[in-house]
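Let us practice reading a record.
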Amino acid sequence: MRLHRLSVTAFGPFGATQEVDFDALSDAGLFLLHGPTGAGKTSVLDAVCYALYGAVPGARQSPGTSLRSDHAPAGTYTEVLLELTVGERRLEITRRPAQPRPKKRGGGFTTEKAQSWLREYDSGTGEWAALSRSHQEIGEEITQLVGMSREQFCQVVLLPQGDFARFLRADAEARGKLLGRLFDTRRFAAVEERLADLRRAAEQQVREGDERLLALAHRTAQVTGGAVVDERPGEPGLADAVLTQAAVARSEAREALDIADTAVSAAESRQAAARRALDLERDLAARQARYAETVRRREALESGRPERDRVQAVLDRSRKADLVAPALGLRADAERDHAAARTAREQSLGLLPAELADEGAEQLSARERRLTEELGGLESARRAERRAAEIARERADLDRHARADDDILQDAGGWLSGWESRRAELAARIEAAQEAAAHAEQLAGRLEPARRRLEAARRRDALAERTADAESRLTAARERRNEAHESWLDVKSRRLQGIAAELAAALTPGDPCQVCGSADHPAPARTGADHVDRATEDAAYAAFTHAEEDRTAAERDTAATAEAWAAAREEVREGSGPEPSVGELAAEVEELAVRHAEAHALAAQTHGARETLARAEREYESRVAAQRDAERRVAARTSQREALDREQTALDAEVARGRGASASVAEQASRLERNIAVLIEAAETVRAVELTARRLKEADGKLADTAFRAGFDTPDEAAAALLQDGEHRTLQHRLDAWQAEAAAVADRLAEPETRAAAEHPPADPDAAEAAHTAAERALREATSALAAVRERGAELAGLSRQADTEARRLGPLRAEYDRVARLAGLTAGTSAENERKMRLESYVLAARLEQVAAAATARLQRMSAGRYTLVHSDARSGGKRAGLGLHVVDAWTGNERDTATLSGGETFFASLSLALGLADVVTDEAGGVRLDTLFIDEGFGSLDDQTLDEVLDVLDSLRERDRSVGIVSHVADLRRRIPAQLEVVKERTGSAVRQKGAGA
């Protein structure tokens, strides 16, 4: 990477634009950057870093600090432009930080966002091509090309000697932090943490597995009643102890199971024998009881034999009487029918006239036929009478409809007479409402602007007072700022006049001067009466800064208030006329609101008026149509009434002929129908009496013949022998039961087993039952014992399987834990295998430090005339861990000692060599990007002339590798030794740069 050109504007101490031509400085190979303290030498390096990474090094980028120069005019942008070549590409980077700028409209300031530009030079066309304006894209592109982060760049390109001097004297932990930032070894620290996490996780899994095994061992001891294993979780022999305990418990359980099984078999045999004896004794007792019961039943049958013979005789006579039962039933039916027919005849003859009471069936039928013929002749008269009733109803309907139509015609005539005037009135209401709607819309368009103007007038009056107050505060703030500025400039000028005396006061005999580097101080300056120290200047500058901030805030407040006041006045003003007051605008708004409310209320009646007119028009059409329909119906009813009158006359004559002496034809027909029905019923009852008398006589003859053949002397004797169905079934069931009981008793007495059981002594089933109960109780106890042994064995087998499963699962976990714990201890430096107790990150950094020491030794030997060599040491110091030790070997004495023992000058060229060596190693680490421009900051005042020459020779030798080195120093002798110079001059209007020497 080679720098070509740097341009800074309003950056840091530089108020105006300053240009630095690095190509001209690089031609000399070695150039000097010098200037008074506070002039801005470091700001040149800050500008390079800001252009590349958008941030300045270290604490100078802390929150609250600003990169903008206090000397810059208000309209000048803070900007840094850097032109460089990196990776064979020539680029131009331009950056502007976030900064305040004056507002384009009105007063005050606004903050403009940070901006970045990246361009690349095209050698073919000779023009610059824009690449990006994105902060993120530019940052990623530059970081990728340079190959270093901002922290690495500040350590490698901008070599701060003070940091490396502290590095030489620092302990291993402090060196580790610096090297870790430069070489980014966070991934190795992450590996250490990851292995530690894996070790803790594996240890937890192993401990959990051991606890599960120990819990299984406790459960096994509870089941067997034995002792628990002595090993604890984490001990290697726990798994084997638990498995051994489980195996012993399983063996003891199998032996107990065999013993319990044998006891159950013996108990089962004894129970089976007792059961067989009990069954035999119960069978004998049952057969003996059966025989005794059969004997008792036989004696009961013999005592009931007379009753059985009587029932048998009754059933025999009943079976004979059953042969006569049909004839008895037939005769009873004939007698019942004949009695019913006689009763019906007496009732029907009682309805006839006295002269017809003795008539026969034929005479009654003939008279019924004559009345039927007379009834048939009345049908036409009945139809005429029904039609006459219908005509009467139709006339009533016509009269009712006529009255309704008269009402309709009268109502319609009255309503239609006022229609035209009502229609005109409704139309006028609609027109007035429409005009009011248009007027309300016009007033609404005027009301809202009037309200806005009223609100703006109120804001205008309030802002007028605030504007006057803000202008007063701004005037006072400006006066305070000018006074503070003049006071600060005066104090600063007085301090600069006596700065030599202030520097002389810090001199110590034997120590080098900060300005010239000499250890002799023959005539140090003395302070005058009006000398001002740094604290007074800082207090004056702080007062000026505070006053400047107050002025800026007052300007922003005044501009914002004035802008709001002008906007309010512009909103109040209507045209080019005068500005109205708040009272005038309030009166105008009130008047418009009242008029708008009245017009809006009237306009709201538009829809109702239209609906009323529409309903009235619909009612008008309905009434006109009803009037026409009523008139048509009146005309039609007149002709209909005449036709009904003619039909009524003809019907009246027909009805008079048919009704005779009755009041109506219907009454005459009803009388004939009743007489016909009475005659028909009387004829039928007379015929029924004659028929039933003949059937009763036939049934009497048949019954007498049937009773004689059945063996009965008279029909009454046969009827007395008959039994009801229920009584017959009851007697038959009793007889069947006697016969079945006799057969069962005979069969049971004939059984050989029953007779043999009667010959044996009486059975004793209770004794056999007691023996069987005792045998069953013994079997249950043996079975329960066997079940308990089996359950205990099953539980022990399950616990054993679980223990075996846990042990097999724990094996790989324990192996994994041993492997991870070994790796974690090795990388953390706590393992016995790690003899130097060196962490992994420290080991990597030690390798990097060894490379840096080798690269630095090549320059240190030249600077020290071959006396000193830097070597890396991984030895432990006290109780601290090894790995980051740095020693220097003195060739004159042959001794190796710590770098903290070097003198001031020796420390300088040792730290310079270390910085240059570190630059080479970091460059290689970053991908081999060539760094053609380096800066070295301070430290040269501690060298004598010979050592200074040797150091400059080493730096000048860098030109052999086509590098340029910029030295930042106050040493006056360097201005004589190095012709190419970049001087930073401090002025009241801001610092400036002046380029001298080669190419200038």
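A brief commentary: Residues 450 and 456 are 10 Å apart (CA to CA).
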